[in-house]
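Escalated from tier 1: tryptophan holo job.
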Amino acid sequence: MKNIILTGDRPTGKLHIGHYVGSLKNRVALQNSGKYDEIYIMIADAQATTDNADNLEKVRSNVIEVALDYLACGIDPQKSTILVQTQIPELCELTFYYMNLVTLARLERNPTVKNEIKMRGFNAGIPVGFLTYPISQAADITAFLANTVPVGEDQMPMIEQTREIVRSFNSLYGETLVEPKELLPSNKTCGRLPGTDGKAKMSKSLGNCIYISDSPEEIKKKVMGMFTDPNHLRVEDPGKVEGNPVFTYLDAFARNEHFPEFWSDYSCLDEVKEHYQKGGLGDVKIKKFLNSILQEELRPIREKREAFQKDLPSVYQTLIEGTKKAREKAAATTNSVRSAMKINYFEEMIKN
Ligand code: TRP
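Tier 2 regenerated the structure:
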């Protein structure tokens, strides 16, 4: 069996450093590991419409931003196929057939959907398309016969739902689709970076994100304004490391090599933590260190992004070619789905 990856992001904003440590870096490593026969990275703009029907401009304008973020971080179109979901109508067709294999109650129980509904507080009721997006996500995954889906922990219910759909399709119509497995980030800290304000999640609407495309000045301003331990008022006070986002970011980004270069008073992060917990180490010094590290890590990415930004026609070409290739694969799967369901009448009529 082929090893095939599919994963993606909703284009509702530029990608931030949480995406970078939680998924983009890992995707690049998987891409370069040579272990996968095919890799598809989806800009899930159709899924993004499910809660943005009244503001499609947000989705439209971010398709290219996400593509730039991908390319800047090292997604290589020679190795990974970047595709735009709305331009592959076969995904809608698969969604339509799969809808008959899922009950309303099962969708309403999906923890990710439940949580997102709560967060969005849909005033005029829940759009049907939003409630059913796990089915469309199952179409995304199965259309490419993906067996591996690198995602964050919050997406596990989606993969479970996909497996259920695959099992019921295959048992009703014969072995056609592939059951996927999630591939979770190996490092817990990297799985979810909190916002600069200490809130559990980075989110555009909270204004607590550091973006991959941020300027050096923006990065510095955001880092120096980060939430820390609110009880660490004076330098002499003992400080808390757990739940302190500055330390969470350091856990995700700091390496021992950074110390001789940026902060030779210490040789590793554990020493810094120990000093902070004992008291006598001020937040500003730690933030300056974090800033140096982030500046160094993000500079080459930002420069690459700026270069792609100056050559948008080549980025458009990458999206057009990737989507064309992806559509061929999705169309082939859709054909086998139609044959399995024996609704490929016309093919049969021509044969007879
Ligand atoms: N639901 C994912 C998210 O919100 C995005 C997504 C859409 C996706 N289709 C996918 C992820 C298929 C993995 C596989 O981040």
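Residues 6-10, 42, 44, 47, 137, 140-141, 149, 151, 155 surround tryptophan (CB under 6 Å).
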